[in-house]
Amino acid sequence: MDCKKAIRMITPYIQNELSDGDTEEFLNHIRHCEKCKNELETNYIIVAGIRLLDSGSSNFDIKGALDRAIRDSYRRLRRIRLVRIVRYSLNTMILLSLFVTFCLELRVLFY
Questions:
Q1: 10: burial class by Cβ within 10 Å (0-12, 13-18, 19+)?
Q2: Considering the entire predicted model, what is its pTM?
Q3: 18-to-9, 21, 22, 58 alpha-carbon distances in Å
Q4: Which is nearest to 3 in space by CA: 23, 24, 32?
Q5: ∠ CA 92-87-98 to the nearest 5 degrees?
Q6: What pLDDT band is residue 96 in, cutting at 50, 70 and 90?
Q7: How far is residue 18's CA from residue 79's CA, in Å, rounded to a whole number?
Q8: Cα(70)–Cα(53) distance, rounded to whole angstroms?
Q9: What pLDDT sits at residue 62?
Q10: CB contact at 8 A, 77 and 20
Q11: Which among 9, 11, 71 has a CA at the least distance from the CA of 46?
Q12: Which of 23, 45, 73, 74 could cysteine-pair with 18, CB 3.0–4.6 Å?
């Protein structure tokens, strides 16, 4: 991903509008690109600051909120990946059991 695309994805990321694939690609880019990470921090400070002012909250740990949001995004992506692996594994086991059952049925029919 190039920086131009990553910068266009900042606002949708902050508003949780990115797909899982785009989120993963975006997070991988900002992990290695300091310029884009600084741009994300700047935009997040603006958006989160406005939200905090509107809500009347006294918790102004915006940098910590961004770090938590990024950490939560990574956790969500890991959870999705784990669910996908478990689903594929279960499907494979089901197909294998059906195949074994079919082979055993053939054995019974022909012997």
A1: buried
A2: 0.73
A3: 8, 8, 6, 29
A4: 32
A5: 30
A6: very high
A7: 17
A8: 22
A9: 74
A10: yes
A11: 11
A12: 23
Residue predicted with more confidence, 1 or 18:
18
Tell me the residue type at 7. Answer: I
Cβ 26 vs Cβ 11: under 8 Å: no
Residue 58 has a pLDDT of 64
The token pair at 110 is: 């022909």
Q: Is 16 left (phi over 0), alpha (psi -120 to 50) or beta?
A: left
For residues 35 and 37, what is the distance between their CA atoms, to the nearest angstrom?
5
Is residue 105 within a helix (H) or strand (E), and if so which, with residue range?
A: helix 62-110
| Structure confidence by residue, pLDDT tens digits, 39-94 | 999 999 888 878 777 676 666 677 788 889 999 999 999 999 999 999 999 999 99
Helix, strand, coil percentages (3-state) for the chain, rounded to 5, are 85, 0, 15
- Reading the block at residue 14, the tokens are 């902050």
Give me 45's structure tokens: 């400070």
